[in-house]
Specification:
- The protein is of the alpha+beta class.
- It folds into 6 domains: 92 residues, Helix hairpin bin (Helix Hairpins, Orthogonal Bundle), CATH 1.10.287.610; 233 residues, D-amino Acid Aminotransferase, Chain A, domain 1; 72 residues, Beta Barrel (OB fold (Dihydrolipoamide Acetyltransferase, E2P)), CATH 2.40.50; 77 residues, DNA polymerase, domain 1; 87 residues, 5' to 3' exonuclease, C-terminal subdomain (DNA polymerase, domain 1, Orthogonal Bundle); 67 residues, BRCT domain (Rossmann fold, 3-Layer(aba) Sandwich), CATH 3.40.50.10190.
- It contains 27 helices and 26 strands.
- The strands form 7 sheets. Strands 14, 15, 16, 17, 18, 19 and 20 form a 7-stranded antiparallel sheet that branches.
- Helix 26 links the parallel strand 25 and strand 26.
- The two termini are 51 Å apart.
- The structure holds 2-(butylsulfanyl)adenosine.
- The site of 2-(butylsulfanyl)adenosine has 14 residues, from strand 3, strand 8 and strand 13.
Length: 717
């Protein structure tokens, strides 16, 4: 693996595969096709933002924008549950850990939190939880929550064996993080041994952070040493904790608040509030502002109190976490996707800021789309310096009539990328405005002619692979996670290798092993990292067809369409032959292509135009001479009910239907509504009617509720 994976920092203003139209639309206005494209775009964009944030400690967007993207993904998935992708960001958190630390597998996954932005969203969190638990109104009203400031640092998991600190790890991808034990030992807030009795094995979760004064001091030291400045305390904390040399960490005054539990070999409390007391007794620092609240009204009042105190606090917070106090209820509620059902992060409202737009830049994406980007005078919006915002397209610039030199209002939340709300009204005596922006009709990178087809909003460079912007973007796409996923070939490495002539076409990637020695001599490389790169490349010379097709970066062929094509055509040779035949309009092959469910005419047209270009065929042939494509990989899942189909029928008395379904799914089962030959197990509640009869007729396995509890590993009710 590469020693320096390269800044995989995405540009927030670079559009991915979705059309700018679908990226700008409200989730409720999307068609299914637009929703699929948008989910695909988000499935790629969010991990890139995660990498920028976690691996490079250099956020590419503000937190509010990031949250808005996550919420958008969820909102679209809620409307189109069938379009949820296996690689959906709602199912994953964070990133795969960087290679430099050894990996540590958490005993209980470290997850994230869903967000609320107002009282209504908080109330619907409570309603969801109550409904899941089947609580009546009185019991819902009796729910208590612990409110804790949401610390803006990085979460860590601390393992104690018989009261001794043995291991500490970052969150990583939620399942596995980086082992930063040695660094954590240098923290003054970290008890090396727990005071008083403790379980044999326990994981304690908390947040490592830097106080605001410590952050300023570190940045001053960085500046005088001529080193890069950290954007905010959180990134400085992450950078400080993830030092390979613990003596550097020791010089950074990192703090730690403990706030949650992971695995525990025995129960240590029955409520979260009492758990926090145990943490204090053991010697941890627990946030002193934590408080019990008993209603949405109290939660809202707490938000106001904390918002007032926020600027005077020694550390950055970005909201308040509300956790259901009763730990038995927490256990029953469990998790959905990446977040617990028993907690919510109520975030402070998004902020707006005013700054000057210095000029408008044009970016060229992988597919040649020319995207206008507003270059702004740097402005601090909620702790992150914003310098750019997207303007989407030519029409948007005209609609908003933004011009170089204008003061503009920018918004941090509620939309996809840093957004320009509009031009600030001018006052009398202001100097005259600049001229309206003239959208270029040539590509600013390769100077080829640009086109805006009738009915479309996007100008596109016609330079194809002769346009360096498109080549580099395409290469980056080619090695991205859902494509060839080559370890050690990040954005920066690709850009550098391209600049030095090592990489011109995707096929050149597979010729890099011939240059291993040259690579080993490059700055930042060495024999080991060059050898690792060679190995990573060779490992990918056998590739599932779907990944291969996706990697080609054909317009509108995202990974789900690539999977459809791979499944339909089976082999590369067959796909290639059929695509060539499909270049003829009206041919059987073209009709067959357009009638694959999920593909359709517009996508068939894109494929045909790709195959009509002789240089694309040359690229394909060059590549496939060095590769073996294989059939699709099937997703594997583990769990005691893995691959089983279960039906619940009748009334369950010890849990609600959604709870039963969630438990079954956690164990790997698929839960369906109707009984058929394909059903593996039917769980019969009381008054199970026709479905029970049908199960008996078909001779299916059935269980009553106690049997189901036993199968699921739950104690008898
Ligand atoms: S509880 C299962 N409590 O917020 C979730 N998290 O957006 C357990 N965070 O990953 C997390 N302060 O890094 C919890 N008082 C607090 C927190 C807190 C900050 C962070 C944590 C988490 C992220 C989720």
């Amino acid at each position: 693996m590469s020693p320096a994976p390269g800044a995989d920092t995405p540009d927030p203003a670079t559009p991915d595969s979705a059309t700018p139209d679908s990226a700008a639309l409200d989730p409720k206005d999307l068609t299914a096709a637009q929703a699929a494209a948008e989910l695909e775009r988000l499935a790629h964009l969010l991990p890139r933002l995660d990498r920028a944030y976690y691996e490079h400690d250099a956020p590419a967007v503000t937190d509010a924008e990031y949250d808005a993207l996550r919420r958008r993904n969820l909102a679209i998935e809620e409307r189109f549950p069938r379009l949820r992708r296996p690689d959906s960001p709602s199912l994953h958190v964070g990133v795969t850990p960087a290679p430099t630390f050894s990996r540590h597998r958490h005993l209980v996954p470290m997850l994230s939190l869903d967000n609320a932005f107002d009282r209504e969203e908080f109330e619907s969190f409570v309603t969801r939880a109550a409904r899941f638990l089947g609580l009546d109104e009185d019991r819902t009203r009796a729910l208590r929550f612990v409110a804790e400031p949401k610390i803006d640092g990085l979460s860590i998991s601390l393992t104690y064996e018989h009261g001794r600190f043995v291991r500490g790890a970052t969150r990583g991808d939620g399942t596995e993080g980086e082992d930063v034990t040695a660094n954590l030992r240098t923290l003054k807030d970290l008890p090396h041994t727990l005071k008083g009795p403790a379980p044999a094995l326990i994981e304690i979760r908390g947040e490592v952070f830097l106080s605001k004064p410590a952050f300023l001091a570190i940045n001053e030291a960085q500046a005088s040493a001529g080193q890069k400045l950290f954007a905010n305390p959180r990134n400085a904390a992450a950078g400080s904790l993830r030092q390979l040399d613990p003596t550097i960490t020791a010089r950074r005054p990192l703090s730690l608040f403990a706030y949650a539990q992971g695995f525990s070999s025995e129960r240590v409390a029955d409520t979260h509030a009492r758990y926090l007391d145990r943490l204090r007794d053991w010697g941890f620092t627990v946030n002193p502002l934590s408080k019990i609240v008993e209603s949405a009204t109290e939660a809202e009042a707490f938000m106001d109190d904390i918002a007032r105190e926020r600027s005077g606090l020694e550390y950055d917070i970005d909201g308040v976490v509300y956790k259901i106090d009763d730990l038995a209820l927490q256990d029953r509620l469990g998790f959905v996707g990446r977040a617990p059902r028993w907690a919510i992060a109520w975030k402070f409202p998004a902020e707006q800021a005013i700054t000057r737009l210095t000029h408008i830049d044009i970016q060229v994406g992988r597919t040649g789309a020319l995207t206008p980007v507003a270059i702004l005078e740097p402005v601090n919006v909620g702790g992150v310096i914003v310098t750019r915002a997207t303007l989407h397209n030519e029409d948007e610039i005209e609609r908003k009539d933004v011009r170089a030199g204008d003061l503009v209002q920018i918004q941090r939340a509620g939309d996809v990328i840093p957004q320009i709300l509009g031009v600030v009204p001018r006052k009398e005596g202001d100097p005259p405005r600049g001229a309206p922006f003239a959208f270029p009709h040539t590509c600013p990178i390769c100077h080829a002619h640009a086109e805006r087809p009738p009915g479309e909003v996007v100008w596109r460079c016609t330079g194809g692979l002769t346009c360096p912007a498109q080549v580099v973007e395409r290469l980056i796409h080619f090695v991205s996670r859902d494509a060839f996923d080559i370890d050690g070939l990040g954005e920066r490495t690709i850009t550098e290798f391209h600049a030095d002539g090592l990489l011109k076409t995707p096929a050149d990637i597979f010729r890099l092993p011939n240059h291993e020695e040259d690579i080993a001599r490059r700055e930042g490389w060495g024999a080991l990292s060059a050898r690792n790169l060679t190995a990573a490349i060779r490992a990918r010379q056998t590739i599932p067809l779907a990944r291969f097709i996706y990697a080609l970066g054909i317009r509108r062929i995202g990974s789900s369409n690539a999977r459809l094509l791979a499944r339909h055509y089976g082999s590369y040779a067959n796909w290639r032959a059929q695509m060539l035949a499909a270049t003829t309009i009206g041919s059987d092959a073209r009709l067959a292509l357009g009638s694959i469910t999920g593909i359709g005419g517009a996508i068939a047209d894109e494929l045909a135009s790709f195959f009509l270009e002789s240089h694309n065929l040359a690229t394909l042939d060059d590549l496939t001479a060095m590769l073996t494509t294989i059939e699709d990989e099937e997703p594997q899942s583990e769990g005691t009910l893995s691959g089983k189909t279960i039906v619940f029928t009748g009334t369950l008395t010890t849990m609600t239907r959604p709870e039963a379904k969630a438990i079954a799914e956690r164990l790997g089962a698929r839960v369906t509504d109707s009984v058929s030959k394909k059903t593996d197990l039917v769980v019969l509640g009381t008054d199970a009617g026709s479905k029970a009869r049908k199960a008996a007729e078909l001779g299916l396995d059935t269980l009553d509720e106690p049997g189901w509890r036993e199968l699921a590993g739950l104690p008898p009710a």
